[in-house]
Specification:
Elements: H1 2-42, H2 51-82, H3 84-89
Helix pairs in contact: 1-2
């Protein structure tokens, strides 16, 4: 019975991490794709050109979506702590 509880907690934790990481990864992916298209069209093949816009966009996304990410994470942790007595009672 405890295996189901542990697997449920792990499943929900992985899902929460994916939800939290999705905006950052999506913004980095789109930024990298746009910079790659720009490099291909202008034939400017500088490898360091990709890093600065990705860092700026990532920090901007963290600033914009940071409160939402924190709310999702604290909501998950709150539900986990509230359900500890129910998990032990089984």
């Amino acid at each position: 019975m405890y295996e189901n509880i542990v697997m449920g907690i792990a499943n929900e934790a992985v899902l929460t991490v994916l939800i939290i990481a999705a905006p950052i990864l999506g913004a980095g992916l789109i930024t990298g794709l746009l910079i790659s298209i720009l490099q291909a069209t202008t034939q400017l093949q500088e490898m360091t050109l990709v890093f600065v816009p990705k860092i700026v966009v990532t920090l901007l996304v963290i600033v914009i979506f940071g409160p939402w990410m924190l709310n999702v994470l604290t909501g998950y942790m709150y539900e986990l702590y509230v359900n500890i007595p129910n998990m032990i009672a089984l």
